[in-house]
Design a protein that fits this description.
Shape: elongated
Number of strands: 14
Strand content: over 45%
Radius of gyration: 25 Å
Largest sheet: 14 strands, antiparallel
Number of helices: 7
Distance between the termini: 92 Å
Order of helices and strands: HHEEEHEEEHEEEEEEHHEEH
Length: 317
């Protein structure tokens, strides 16, 4: 029996290609974008966020495109997105799992990644490109400082579906031309906080390792600017409401001598010594205790914090 020739296979391949094209086109034309938007609103609400979008349309084969999007948390803090696309991933869907790919533009940058909607554990990946921190109002409200710099990085984290599971993964971030354009820093012993002048931080690098629910900063520091920063032993426990996760560790802060010698900064050292003189070392660096929560970190001089053993990440008086 003769084997099939190209003349025999060509019509079959054409019919198969036509069927696949018609199937994908039908999916695209009949995809319920409005229903997917409502589903996204429900998913966001379950995670403590309110989602709203002015324009909704199709995207890709199984996706929805949103424009003028606003994400708002329970405290009323809003994150604006210029545009966002959310699409169902076909290969996981064929294997019986719901997983999405997302692509959002915010603060002149871009955040892309994937997220599982079911299964245990659920994997989350993201790539951050060119996000302008000067436009990130949520960071300004959380820190009290007007931050500068362009951030890029990546995340790959698996999250448990049940309350007994533990998160694992890694997050890396780098900020180029980082700095502070002013603001106030809350410090014990200094009513009204410390007014922070404009300062460059050079390059900031962050490496966060998550193992069995414990997130440890393997690297968190700034070098090459007016202020040198370095964290030591800083960690928090991952929980569903990350803003309220207890934060504990140490921070080393060292202003450069040229920075302190500027005419507009000459009153800064007496203020720092008045609030944190006990924490100043021989090299001019201040050792600080970090505590509080991820959403509202607090600082106090290490010498004062070290007088009592902390419980639950909050130093005792």
């Amino acid at each position: 029996m003769a084997s099939p020739t190209w003349t025999t296979w060509r019509p079959r391949l054409l019919y198969a290609g036509f069927f696949l094209l018609a199937f994908l086109l039908s999916l695209r034309l009949t995809f319920p974008a409005a229903a997917v938007k409502q589903r996204l609103i429900v998913e966001a609400a379950q995670r403590g966020w309110q989602l709203d979008a002015e324009e909704v349309g199709g995207a890709g084969v199984l996706g929805v495109g949103l424009r003028q999007v606003t994400l708002k948390d329970q405290s009323g803090l809003a994150i604006p997105l210029e545009a966002a696309q959310v699409t169902l991933r076909l290969w996981p869907l064929l294997r019986g799992r719901r997983s999405i790919a997302f692509d959002a533009r915010l603060y002149d940058g871009r955040v892309r990644g994937t997220a599982d909607l079911d299964g245990d554990p659920q994997r989350f990946t993201a790539a951050v490109e060119g996000v302008d921190l000067a436009r990130a109002l949520p960071l300004r409200k959380a820190s009290g400082l007007e931050l500068l710099g362009v951030a890029s990085g990546s995340a790959d984290v698996t999250l448990p579906a049940g309350p007994q599971g533990k998160a694992n993964g890694r997050v890396e971030l780098a900020v180029q031309e980082a700095g502070v354009n002013g603001g106030k820093l809350s410090l014990p012993g200094l009513p009204g906080g410390l007014t922070v002048p404009k300062a460059s931080l050079g390059e900031v690098k962050v490496a966060l390792q998550v193992v069995e629910g414990k997130a440890t900063f393997e690297a968190l520091g700034a070098a090459g600017g007016d202020l040198e920063l370095r964290a030591n032993g800083l960690y928090f426990q991952v929980q569903p409401k990350l803003e309220f996760a207890s934060l504990f560790g140490r921070l080393r802060l060292k202003p450069s001598e040229p920075f302190l010698a500027r005419p507009e900064n000459r009153a800064l050292r007496p203020l720092l010594d008045g609030a944190m003189g006990m924490a100043r070392g021989g090299d001019g660096a201040y050792e600080l205790q970090v505590y509080g929560t991820v959403g509202h970190p607090q600082l106090r001089p290490l010498a004062a914090a070290g007088r009592a053993q902390p419980r639950g990440g909050v130093p005792e008086e």
